[in-house]
Amino acid sequence: MSCNLSYYLCPEAKANGITFAPPRALDAGFDLPCLNPITIEPMSRAAVRTGLHIAIPEGWVGLVRDRSSVALKGVMTLAGVIDSAYRGELKIVMYNSGPKAVTFASGERIAQCLVIPHLVCEVALEVESLDLLGATERGDGGFGSTGA
Fold this sequence. Notes:
148 residues; mainly beta; 4-stranded antiparallel β-sheet; 3-stranded antiparallel β-sheet; 11 strands; 35% strand
């Protein structure tokens, strides 16, 4: 299954030599660039501009995920769902959990976006008791309940 994705790069991104392209063969995600140089202080978060707008097709969703090279620096992405109705600039919420400030250069790949199909739940039915949700082997077992 594949989809066609339209995108727009702002003039500032183009002037900075930033490009956007589909993933390489066998890669899962689109690399997302940093538009302007930015430093994220320890234990701080920032909304990092990309200069990129994308049109995710209906029935698909974009999931913003960490890049392993960035995660090794102690920086992770937060709040990463891009709905197909969104046309604004992608800004990546990043959090520096490490002890040192981390600087990203213009054009540096800071995150990745997986574009995957999804089903739309058009109805949410409220039930009168927990029993009506149905039993599963896991039940209400929370963190670590599956042995992980």
